[in-house]
Each structure stands twice: as C-alpha cells, then as structure tokens.
Design a protein that fits this description.
The protein is α/β, with parallel strands linked by helices. The strands form 5 sheets. Strands 7, 8, 9, 10, 11, 14, 15, 16 and 18 form a 9-stranded mixed beta sheet that branches. The radius of gyration is 24 Å and the shape is elongated. The chain binds ligand BES and zinc ion (ZN) (2 copies). One zinc ion binds next to loops.
C-alpha cells in the first residue's frame, strides 16, 4: 500500500472514501468530521441523531455520494467514549476502518489527521497510531496459498493522510514513515512465526537475518555447529543434537553513525523452530502451534531491522540461537548432564524445558559485548500463560530501572507485560543432586523458575527476561492484530530503544 501525506481541505479532495472518527455522546463530531458535517448540511448529525450509529467503539457505517464534498463515500468509525479514549483505541479504530475499506474492495482512501481531535494526543502520536493501526490490522500471511487463491484477495492500493497545517507537513510525513517502518518490523516477525517449521528452519532464519543485514547495513554473523562447539556451547548443542536440521547461532550487530550513549543493549531471542518436546515428547493436541516457539528470535530480527531503518542512536546487538527440538536416537535424554559455555553444568529433567538451555549459552555469549543491559524474549513456559493469560508477557529481571523502561514502553505500545518476582527462595527448586543446576523446578511457579534458571546465567549484568509464550499468537482477531502471529515484542522493545538515554534515564 502506498502511503502519502498531503495538505488541503477535507471537503475539496477527490477520494474513493474518507475515513472519519466519531466519538460516542453529544460532542462526538469534531475536527474533520465537523467540517464534513457542515459541508453536507448536517449529514453526520442526522445519522447520529437517528440512532443508526452512535459512535460505539470500532463500529462502522458507510455513507454514499453526498453533496458538498468531493469524495465518493464517507466511512464513519466509532471511537467510543471521549474520556475513555487511548492511543491503543486509535490504532484499533484506524484498523477497523481500513479493514472495512478492504472488504468493500475499495482501492484508495483519505484519512484526515483530525480523524480524532484531542488535546491530550499530539499530531505526531496521532499519525503514528493511525499508520500503525492500519498496517498492523491489514496484515495477512498468504505465502502458502496457491496463486489463483491469492489473486482473489482484495488489497487497498493507497492511503492519503491529510494534514490541515502546512507547517506540520514534514513532521507528519516523517512520523508516518517511521510508523510504517515499525509495522514492517512487526510484519517480518509475524511472517517468520507464521511460516511452518519445515520452511522456517534455523538455516532459513539465518538467511533472513543475512538479508536484513544486507538491506539495512547491519553486520550479521552466523555460527554453525562446529563453531559453537569450539566456543563450548554445550547447552545449545545439547538441544540441537537430536535434529537433522543444522543449528544456527545468529548475531546481528547495529552500530549507529551517531550514538547518544556509550551503552550497548543486547536483545536475545529464543528460536526453537519446532518444539516437539524432544524425548520428553509433548502431547499431540495443538502441537502444530509449536512452530511459533521461535517467536522471540523472530522479534529480534524485526527489532534489529527497525532499529537500523530508523537509524536509532544506540548500539544494539541481537542474538538468536536457532534449532529444532525433536526426538531421535542421538537426542538429549532426561538425566543427562551437559555443560554450558560458562562451565556451569546442567542436569536435564525434561528435554521440553529446552528454551532455557539455548538461552543459557546465548546469555553467556551476550556478556562478551559488555552490555549496559540484556533483554531476552522467549516463549519459555506454558506456566506463564496459566498465570497471566494469553495477552500478557511475564517480566522478570535483576534491574528495576530496566523494568521501569519496559513498563513505560508497554503503556505506550499496548503490548502488555506484568512483573513476576525472582526471590532467592525460588532457587531452591532448581538445586540438582548431580550437577550445578537442573533445568526444571517442578510444577510450582513454572514461569518464575524458568526465569530464575536464566538469571543464573545472566549474572551481574542488568538483565530482564520476557516470557512471551502467551501473546505471540492469538486465536481470535483483535482490533489491530489479525488472528495468528502477533509480532509481539517488536513494538515494545523498539520503543524502549527509541527512548534509550542510558540505564538510569
Ligand atoms: N515452548 C514451550 C513453552 C510453551 C508452552 C509455549 C505452551 C507456548 C505454549 C517450552 O519449551 C516448554 O515446553 N516448557 C515447558 C517447561 C516445563 C517442562 C518445565 C512447559 O511449559 O511445559
Ligand atoms: Zn519445550
Ligand atoms: Zn520451547
């Protein structure tokens, strides 16, 4: 979809459809909708007065060919109650409107910046939320549909954003394109997660990382099994040893032209391209979903691409250990003891607690960069879904400043996180008779013992773990997240990095 920003009067511009926001209640018609209402002799007021459309959140109504405006149609989108309004609702409203327009088969639409007018939201934040909502909401994954079916799909060709104020044009244009870049980062993550495991292999993910690096001028290093063996990554290799798909340890390094701080931030993402559980085999029901066990790694690729595209002034390194977890004659077994890159030994209780094993070596490797902070993203435990539900990531860590930054980003992006404790007592549950630590702490506090295991490898470096097992996939359509892979984590951490001014600022 082509995205342009223009300046002009809403009533004078030709368009297949204009999208307008209407709040519920007496003062629902404002900004562009008021201008259109006036030019059309009170058409919108008539509609709301009739009770046919009350501005109910995300509801839409289409009006045809009215006198007084150049556009052929007007689409009203409900914004709900004015005082309950949030940026997240704005994303959702923009998405509902755009989806309706696509369903109609229309190819082009006009979106006035005063779609919503609120003193509490700046024009830059408005345009960002609108563009994010539209692109995120229109996402579809059709790579594996045959061509004839693909062709049947309707697509909108262009969206024109209308700014009233000429002075703001450059700023609005810039904000719109930044939001689009962010949505593209989310698309990259969603595409990788949606892709089935027979296609999204560790090799495929490594090739994708290399393509991203080439396109956006990052450096990418891909280590094969012989190289990680030399480095002593016994935990990562332990998980990989049962698979015929060669494992890959992927490192993306973004060095800014101008840095705002000397900090290096490392983002680590779990990429189990398929988690069967290994010898501790999972029950068959719903196992097809375990292709999404690489969503942390996918988000890291999306984050690094966006950070480079936006040229953020901070040094960011992405680390993605990628392998399958499948049973085989050579596979890791419960009771086995393996040695991590730091020398710490691990007793395997369940081969299905594999994410923490590959992350252990990745976290140790991350420390080589002497980072100011490490953040990991991992679909680590079913227990986190039991604790917090499907829409929320569990957050654990060793640094309150870093967690505060992530909470602020969560508020701004609508990607929900909730903190869980890592009190020392939980460490008792991971004591092993035979090795330094075991990889499962029993049934209690499963999300936390997963996090605690990682803490043992993150050591003294400020570190936060995000257990994203729930929110990386949605079984139902959400306002601006279609059913399926969500790309969770990309918007959250790009926001953290955009606002990075040092650990304590
Ligand atoms: N990838 C899973 C976690 C998961 C489960 C994500 C369900 C999404 C939905 C992880 O590798 C795993 O299997 N964890 C085990 C840990 C247990 C053996 C301690 C789990 O959650 O059951
Ligand atoms: Zn598992
Ligand atoms: Zn897993």
């Amino acid at each position: 979809m082509n995205l342009t920003v223009e300046q002009g009067a809403i009533t004078d511009i030709q368009a297949a459809v204009i999208m307008l926001g209407i709040f519920a209640g007496d003062d629902g018609i404002a900004g562009a909708s008021r201008a259109v209402d006036r030019a059309t002799s009170g058409m919108i007021k008539k509609i709301t007065a009739s009770g046919d459309f009350t501005g109910e959140l995300y509801r839409t109504v289409l009006v045809y060919k009215t006198r007084g405006i150049k556009a052929e149609r007007v689409l009203l989108v409900g914004l709900g109650k004015r005082k309950e309004f949030t940026l997240d609702r704005l994303r959702g409203a923009a998405s509902s409107g755009a989806r309706f327009i696509r369903e109609m088969g229309l190819k082009q639409f006009l979106l006035p910046l005063s779609f919503v007018q609120l003193s509490t939201i700046s024009s830059v934040n408005t345009v960002r939320a609108l563009v994010e909502g539209i692109f995120l909401g229109l996402y579809a994954f059709d790579e594996f549909k045959t061509d004839s079916e693909k062709k049947k799909k309707k697509v909108i060709e262009s969206c024109t954003i209308l700014a009233e104020n000429r002075q703001e044009l450059v700023k609005i244009h810039d904000a719109a394109h930044k939001a689009r870049a962010l949505a593209e980062g989310v698309y990259l993550a969603r595409d990788l997660v949606s892709r089935p495991a027979n296609s999204a292999t560790p090799t495929f993910i490594a090739h994708t990382a290399q393509a991203v690096a080439k396109r956006w001028k990052l450096t990418c290093r891909v280590l094969g099994e012989a190289q990680v063996r030399k480095l002593g990554m016994g935990c990562f290799l332990g998980v990989a040893q049962g698979s015929r798909e060669p494992a890959r340890f992927i490192i993306l390094d973004y060095v800014p032209k101008k840095a705002r701080t000397h900090d290096t931030v490392v983002i680590v993402g779990k990429a189990i391209t398929f988690d069967s559980g290994g010898i501790s085999l999972k029950p068959p029901q719903g196992m097809e979903r375990m292709k999404d066990d690489m969503a942390g790694g996918a988000a890291v690729l999306g984050i690094l691409q966006t950070v480079a595209q936006l040229a953020l002034p901070v040094h960011v390194v992405g680390i993605v250990p990628a392998t399958e977890n499948v049973p085989d004659g050579a596979a890791l077994k419960p009771g086995d003891v393996i040695t991590s890159m730091s020398g710490k030994t691990v007793e395997i209780i369940s081969t299905d607690a594999e994410g923490r094993l590959i992350l252990a070596d990745a976290l140790i490797h991350a420390k080589h960069y002497k980072p100011a902070a490490i953040i990991d993203l991992a679909t680590l435990t079913g227990a986190c879904i039991t604790a917090l539900g499907n829409d929320v990531a569990g957050m654990m860590g060793t640094d309150e400043h870093l967690m505060k930054k992530i909470k602020a980003a969560s508020e701004a992006t609508g990607e929900k996180v909730w903190q869980l404790p890592l009190w020392e007592e939980y460490g008792e549950l991971l004591k092993s008779e035979i090795a330094d630590i075991k990889n499962v702490g029993g049934r209690d506090a499963g999300a936390i013992t997963g996090g605690y295991f990682l803490k043992e490898f993150a050591g003294d470096i400020p570190w936060v773990h995000l257990d994203i097992a729930g929110p990386v996939w949605t079984e139902k359509d959400k306002p601006y997240i279609p059913k399926g892979a969500t790309g969770f984590g990309v918007r959250l951490l790009v926001n953290v990095l955009e606002n990075w001014r040092g650990m304590k600022n």
